[in-house]
Amino acid sequence: MALSDSLLDQVRNCGVVGSGGAGFPTHVKLAAQVDTLVINAAECEPVLVTDQWLTISAAADVVDGIRAVARQVGAGRIVIGIKEHYHAMIAALRPHLAGAPAIEFHFFQDFYPAGDEHVMVHDITGRIVPEGGIPLDVGVVVQNVSTMHAVRRAMFDQPFIRKAVTVAGEVARPGVYEAPIGMSAAEVINAAGGSTLDRFEVIDGGPMMGGLQKCIEDPVIKTTAGYIVLPPDHHVVRARKVPDRTALRRTSAVCCQCRMCTDMCPRFLLGHRIEPHQAMRGILAGREVSKDVMAMAWLCSQCGVCEEYACDMGLSPKHIFKLMKERLVAEGKKNPCHERPETAMEQNGWIRVPKARLTRRLGLASYLLPHSGEIRVLRDPWLVRIPLKQHAGAPSIPVVTVGDAVRAGQLIGEIPEGRLGARIHASISGVVRDVAGGVVTIERS
Ligand code: SF4
Ligand code: SF4
After folding, report:
1. Is the CB of 311 under 6 A from ligand 1?
2. Residue-range domains of the chain with CATH
3. Is 0.90 surpassed by the pTM of this model?
4. What is the pLDDT along the chain (445 residues), one digit of tens a residue?
5. CB of 256 shorter than 6 A to ligand 1
6. Among 248, 255, 319, which residue has the most ligand 1 atoms within 8 Å of its CB, making it the best to mutate?
7. Among 140, 256, 321, 374, which is least packed by CB within 10 angstroms?
8. Residue 97: exposed, middle, or buried by beta-carbon count in 10 A (0-12, 13-18, 19+)?
9. Residue of 260, 301, 324, 325 best suited for mutating to test ligand 2, as the one with most atoms within 8 Å of CB
């Protein structure tokens, strides 16, 4: 470990952000003091195996990272939340867990979304994260298991410049590939043997929470978990192409108010005041939706359970909540919901979405990958396009100009003074060809 810097400085200097979700800067999370550290190793998006393959390939490093983070945040209890059938991952981690401080496993059955922070914290600690809150509000820090690998690298002053991503679906060689940040999705897919289809679409991330890749030339960033290549008429693709007007029209014509979407909503089950069927009823009635119902949009995690599993009518409360939230944000409204439920719903714990059945319903069962495998490391491409914003917070400020020679790992984007953000580094050695539109383009030397 570098001797001079604290872990916080090392993690900040190396630009580590959460590998799952919104890419929250890790050094900010590590500044907290809590009693419990939860490591999210439940990887529950169907088809993705990035966390599993990465952890198995570097289990000792991951555990080193966990111990360092636990010391930093002062956690007396360290728990790895993991699916009980991830046998290879458990076997890889177990030999490194001996000694102090104790690290325990919490085994989840195979349901979705076990990896939701709120669900995970409640199942492991019995505490309920408040509405609109974060685990820190109940004395818990949750870190993704792959982020622990990035933390370990930061302890040796190695910046976050490469990312492991699952490439699955209609490709010749599905698997997990390690790519430099800024490499295009098209190049990563080509490295996986290219698509087996003439025409295809790409899901950026998991099939439940990931979006449609807008442009195949868009780059891998720190939060990229995977690319799923699918036929253009695949259900998962079509669901993402439903126009807003169509979603609203369908709701007003078809919703039968069965309330299955509410009864299966993971946040409702934790006691949060979110009832998606009420949002649908608001649209059905054709009147202005009440303030209280609109406010539920702040509590939706966009997990997709209502859309992909609960609703037999093919409707999407998730889509409706997204529209409502966009409107609230455009109007400058803030989340008014901050209650902390005392207890979860009685049925929480037994109303769970089996991931295997969900995967079949999504039409993805034929694309499943094994739980372990060798990560293929990709060679540096000729060009990388590195966005200055790959994280929650403000974009970084470029500290290089056109014509500068840079080496891999060199700082190219600094956190704006006093703002939330993360540093950005060159992922290959070369010459800066462009700094425009919030992107630094580097050509390999
Ligand atoms: S599950 Fe579907 S049909 Fe039933 S209330 Fe929800 S949106 Fe309406
Ligand atoms: S996407 Fe649907 S199920 Fe998930 S939190 Fe939002 S309303 Fe609930």
Report:
1. yes
2. 7-155 (3.40.50.11540), 162-234+363-379 (3.10.20.600), 242-351 (1.10.1060), 381-445 (2.40.50)
3. yes
4. 444 469 999 999 999 999 877 899 999 999 999 999 999 999 999 999 999 999 999 999 999 999 999 999 999 999 999 999 999 999 999 999 998 899 999 999 999 999 999 999 999 999 999 999 999 999 999 999 999 999 999 999 999 999 999 999 999 999 999 999 999 999 999 999 999 999 999 999 999 999 999 999 999 999 999 999 999 999 999 999 999 999 999 988 889 999 999 999 999 999 999 999 999 988 877 777 899 999 999 999 999 999 999 999 999 999 999 999 999 999 999 999 999 999 999 999 889 999 999 999 999 999 999 999 999 999 999 999 999 999 999 999 999 999 999 999 999 999 999 999 999 999 999 999 999 999 999 999 8
5. yes
6. 255
7. 374
8. middle
9. 301
Residues with CB under 6 A from ligand 2: 265-267, 274, 276, 300-306, 317-318, 321
